[in-house]
Structure formats: structure tokens, C-alpha cells
Amino acid sequence: MPETLALNAAEFPRCCDRCFHSPERPCRDLVACLESGPLCHEDDACAAKLTARREAAMRLTGGNAVVYVGTGTCGLGAGAAKTLRAVRAWLHEHGHEAEIVEVGCIGICSYEPLVDVQLPGRARLSFSRVTEEAVEPLLTSLFNGEVPRELLLGQLRGEGGEPWPDLPYLDEHPFFAPQTRWVLANCGIANPDSIEEYLARGGYRALARALRDRTPEEVVKTVEESGLRGRGGGGFLTGRKWGFALRTPADQRYLVCNADEGDPGAFMDRAVIEGDPHRLLEGMAIAAYAIGATKAYVYIRAEYPLAITRLRRAIAAARAYGLLGDNILDSGFSLEIVLKMGAGAFVCGEETALIHSIEGRRGMPRPRPPFPAARGLFGKPTIINNVETLANVPAILDRGPEWFGSVGTENSKGTKVFALSGTIARTGLVEVAMGTTLRDIVFAIGGGIPGGRAFKAVQIGGPSGGCVPESRLDTQVDYETLKGVGAMMGSGGLVVMDERTCMVDVAKFFMDFIQRESCGKCIPCREGTRRMLEILQSLTRSRRGEQEIEALERFRSVMNLEHLATVIRDTSLCGLGQSAPNPVLSTLRWFRDEYEEHVYDRRCPAKACTELLTYSIDPAKCTGCAVCAKNCSSDAIVGVLKNAHHVIPERCIACGTCVEMCHFDAIVTA
Question: What pLDDT is attached to residue 553?
Fold first, then answer.
């Protein structure tokens, strides 16, 4: 039986006012309670909760058959809804009494849909790419005692009953082996809609101990001693930030969880909420107690419907157990958590803009100081942390600051969650110890670049981050070290690029995003990013018909690009504007030769900027089918049917349609 089940009942949330703490009944451990029945069995609500606790305990100890289906957003996008229906149909058709549990994302998104199967008395097995068609052969084999190894990822260590002989463990898989999964420990494993399972895994124990044994000042000190830094961008010490709010005199304080991921390629917060919402709620409750807040907000993107649904259910369940609401666990501490849906504005990732949005105003930043910890939401002291930061708090309170500080580097403790995407073999959500190199993340965990292509760069930190070249891949994941190579930790988006990527085009993509998302309050960000985007667009545009004066003006503007970026960085109002030039500055620093080829040679070495390409036809491959000529919008392709065609350069507008239409690879680009 897992150690987490042997909790003392004094630390375990009671089912109702008559449970556990009755003076006539001594406190017993949870296992004894589960085995002996409720203390107040005439209470239907209490009996229902006890039944749910027993079911959770059975899942953890392997007492019954369970089929787990990963129905996070990534899983649903890969067809998990069809897989789920197929599982239900198969179990019904064959009369098996197996429980079906929907879980979040375990992280290895490129292997979705994922299905775990736990047979009575045996360890839980995890299978990848279980499409609708694969359900029947998979379940038929398993319930006949055979394990289909071609789909097997591995068996879960410590989940269920006896281990399977001669089968690998999931934590030995190349994707998982280098990881240190603290924040993601329950994601894809536990039922996100079952507070009883979270409790059985030791959940809310840290909150109960904090309320019973520690003062707010002691909680703040513990978090500060752990070295936990904000995982949302700036990396400020979390405990020190809490201390500012606690020491500021006020009749009301607020806690805000920033779950508004606005970065392209970032999905960490969404996955944590979808897979383990109670971890976030427990972290928020501890943080609110530490700063003396009785009201908290979760500011979350409205585009996250599944995360919102699961978070709402979790809040309702926590209230039913007395873990939220009035007088939590008889401590005298009360907390209300409110969901606030944002409209997806990138600028609302900035603290003061987020505060304005919650207050019902337009999301625009204001000058600081005063900082939100002193004067924030509705003019009261306010602490804003993101999901990952708060999700770290329960484990720190439960295991101690020394445990947390034992992993990481001197100035960056603990772990960091990254959303790994781009041209890489294994995309998904990864959690690594601080100090892990980017090379290990890309090649050991991510499996490197598919198709034998060469690695070119990794973009880290979202639109405000920077691109790191191959020569700096041994850079450690550390707040200060990443800044040294022109990048930043940011929210944790990590996009891998191969040799086919044009770095000027990458800078243009992120600058276009930043320019559109600029709130427009300050001139350097509003006008400066627009001008930078215009310069980058001119570099990737065809120069046909360009006048000499236009060419001279373009050349001068390019020469001023770096200076313009520096001015924007130094004079913008908020952190988002100050970091807006990072994509340009980092690509100029490491890939200046590509900029020079765009400027002087008017060519894109990666062949990604289609308007700069020249098109011709290889007569040895051309069959004269005339498909390219029929689809050419500028009549630039001429020739006689069944004879080799050719391109008239003066007419070609470099749209690339001929490349898409040719079935014989006869179109040559340069």
C-alpha cells in the first residue's frame, strides 16, 4: 500500500463536522478509516465521500481493473475522444467491470492518444498511439493476459499491484529518464476530477500542517529559504515577494494566480491545471495564508475551456471538504477563490495590466513603483504568481526547503517545466532540474531533429525570449546563464528549429506577434516595434521594381535596426516592451550572416523567404505535363506540351505554386 495512504486522520480533511475530530473517537490513520466505515454513516454526503475515498485507494493499490485515457487538450486533439468511446464500447460489449478514468497529459504529446491499463493485482501499463482502431486489439490482448509490446511505453513504478516481469518501466523511457518530475508528478497519472485521489496521494497535507503548526511568517520564511523563484518571467524570489505583501499594513490583501499563457508555443500552465488542479489550489491556499489574503483570483485564458471546467470542479470539491471557504480545517483562516476569464491579451501577462483587467479596466500597464505587493488589486497589497510557481509550494512545505534546494544551481533552485515543440522527434511537456543543459533537453529528452536534418537554433522564453544557436547548446537552464546568451527563462516555451528555418523570418514572426499585442500606451513599444517589423518585412520581400532611393532607405534602416532595438529595450514602460526586441537582438547576435545575405545578396540561405527565391525548371526532370503552367497566376511558365518548360524570371512573382503542383520535382529554387 502506498505510503501516502498512511496519513494520520488529524491531518486528513474530514467528510463532515462529526468525522475524525470527535472527542469521543480517537484519531485513526486513513487506512483504518477506509476499512472500518464512516463514523457517521447515516449522513449520505459523508458516506458518498467515503466511497469515493475507497475507490481512490483501490486505484492506487491495484485492487480493481482501471482503464485510464489521456483526455487533456493535446490528447483530444490527437483523437482521444474517439479512443474513449471505443474503450467504453469494448468494455460494455465484453462485460468487463473496469473503471474508466480520464486523466490529463503525462507530457509526451507526440505519442498521443495515450491509454493506461491496470489489471487487478498488477502494475499499471502505459501505451502510446492508441487510436480508435487500436483499442480492440489492445484490450483484447491485455484481458487475455498478453501485453502488446509494440504500443507499450512502460509500466508505472509504484502504481497498482505487483510489477510485470521483464517489462520496462515508464521512468526508464528516454523521454522521462532525464526528467525530475515534481510539478508534473500527478499529471497524466491521477484523476484530476477526484479530490479523494489527490488526498490519497498526500494532497492538502502541506496545507493542513501549515494551518495547524506554522504562522504566516514561518511559511514565508520557509518558501524564501527554499530559493523558489517566480517561474513566470522575471525570476524574483517568491518568499521575499510574499514578505513584502505580508509586512504592508492593510485591511485586505489579494492573491492572483496568472494562468493567462499568451506565448506562442507555451502550454505548461494549461496542462498542469488540466492534469492536477488540486495541486494549484493547495499552493494558492498556502500562499494566501502566508500573506494574509482571504480572496484569490485565477486569471485564466477563456480559450482554455477544459482547464476552466476541471478547475471549477476542483474548487467545488475543495469547498465540500472544507479546504476552501470559511474557517478552513478549524484554523480560523478563510479563503474564496474566483475564476476570472481573460480575453487572451498578451500584455495581461504583465502584472499591472493583469490587475487592471481584473478590475474591469483595459489591460494596460502602469509605471512602478508602487509595486503590486504594496499597492495592487483595488489598491490593496497583491501577490501575483503563475501556475508553476504556486504548484511548487505544497511540496516545499511538505518536504522542507532543504529538499527543494538540493536540486538546481546556486542561484536557481528546483525544477523548470518547458513546453518542447518545433522540429523535434518527441514534442511535449518536460520538467527538468535547473542546471540541465539545453542539449540534454533537445537531444536526450526530445530525441533530436527528425529526418536527419541539422539543428539550427532553439527559441526559449516566448516572444520576449531569444534564440540560442548550436554553439551554445551546452548552456544550462538557469536564470542568469540564459540571460548571458541573450535569452530568458520566461514562461517556458522552447521551440526547436532545424536548418530549414530562416532566422530573419523567425524574428519577423515574433515581432509581428509583439507588435499586434502591444497595448499602445508607450511610444517606444507602440511605434518602435512597428518600425522594426517594417524593416524585417522589407528584408524578406522581393526587390523587383525597387527604386534606387528605396534601396538606399532600406539599407540605412537595416543598419539602424540594432540601435532601434536597444532604444526600445531601454525606454519602454513595462517588462513586455523592454523585452520585445529580444528576438531581433538575439538573432542579430548569433545569425548576423543571415541578415547580411538578405541585405547584400538578396537571398535567403534557408529558402524560407519565398519572395527572395528564384525559380527555374530542370529540363531533365520536366515531362511537359504543363500542370505548373496552368496554375501559374503570372503566366511566367511557358513551353510546348510534352516538352520541357521554362520560367520567365521577369514575370515570376515567387509565389511557390509551381513547386506545390509539380509531381516530378522539376522546379529548382535558389
Answer: 67
Helix (H) or strand (E) holding 617: strand 615-617
Phi-psi label, residue 59: left if phi above 0, alpha if psi -120 to 50, beta otherwise: alpha
3-state SS, residue 496? strand
pLDDT (tens digit per residue) in 612-658: 888 999 999 999 999 999 999 999 999 999 999 999 988 888 888 99
> Looking at residue 1, what is its pLDDT?
36
Question: Cell triple for residue 451?
Answer: 529526418
Residue type, 567: V
Phi, psi (deg, nearest 5) at residue 181: -95, 100
| Per-residue confidence (pLDDT) for residue 549, from 0 to 100 | 61
Residue 428 phi, psi dihedral angles, 5° rounding: 150, -165
The single-letter DSSP state of residue 634 is T
- Give SS3 for 66: strand
Q: What is the pLDDT of residue 24?
A: 42
**Residue 37: per-residue pLDDT:** 43
Give CA–CA dist 298/26, Å, rounded: 38
Residues 91 and 98: their CA atoms lie apart, in Å, by 7
Distance CA 125, CA 154 (A): 6
> Residue 47: what pLDDT?
64
Contacts of 160-163 spanning 24+ positions with Cβ under 8 A? 160/60, 160/61, 160/62, 160/118, 160/121, 160/122, 160/123, 160/124, 161/61, 161/62, 161/63, 161/120, 161/121, 161/122, 161/123, 162/62, 162/121, 162/122, 162/123, 163/123
Q: Residue 287 to residues 105, 218, 375, 516: CA-CA distances in angstroms?
A: 26, 12, 18, 34
Measure the CA–CA gap between 15 and 17, rounded to whole angstroms: 7
Would you call the peptide bond into 369 cis, given omega within 30 degrees of 0 as the criterion?
Answer: yes
> What SS3 string covers 376-398?
CHHHCCEEEEEHHHHHHHHHHHH
Residue 611: what residue type?
E
Residues of the chain scoring pLDDT < 70: 1-47, 50, 544-557
pLDDT at residue 2 in the model: 43
Residue 570: its H or E element:
helix 561-571
User: Among 263, 232, 259, 270, which Cα is nearest to 74's?
Assistant: 270
Q: What is the pTM of this model?
A: 0.90
- Residue 122 is given by DSSP the state B
For residue 492, give the amino acid letter: G
Contact (CB, 8 A) for 300 and 339: yes
Evaluate whether 429 touches 415 at the Cβ level (below 8 Å). no
Residue 290 contacts by C-beta under 8 Å, 6 or more apart in sequence?
210, 216, 219, 220, 223, 242, 246
Q: Are 604 and 504 in contact (CB under 8 A)?
A: yes
Residue 538 Cα distances to 394, 419, 421, 611, angstroms = 51, 32, 28, 11
- The CA distances from residue 502 to 456, 497, 513, 561, in Å, are 9, 9, 17, 18
